[in-house]
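Quick start: what a row looks like.
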Amino acid sequence: MFKIFWLICGMLSLIIGIIGIVLPLLPTTPFVLLAAASFAKSSTAFHDYLINSKYFGTIIKDWQENRTIPLRAKIAAVLMMSISIIVSIIYLIK
């Protein structure tokens, strides 16, 4: 029963994380890390797939080994938030 719960949480978190790639205000990294933690409790196959993923593998490995988020991910997050704020201000002024 709990494995199904964690599997559903992992899937939802991963979907939200993937959506966060294209939506500037929705963070990707925390949702991918939550998906990895959920898959670790529910399905080793999904967890291994996520860790070996070309796009998310390094983020998860860095977090599991060092408890750090890569500098590239931090810069991308700050950049996307800044762009979102600037675009919002521009539309607010018009």
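That is the whole record. Residues 2-93 form one domain. The chain has one domain: 2-93.
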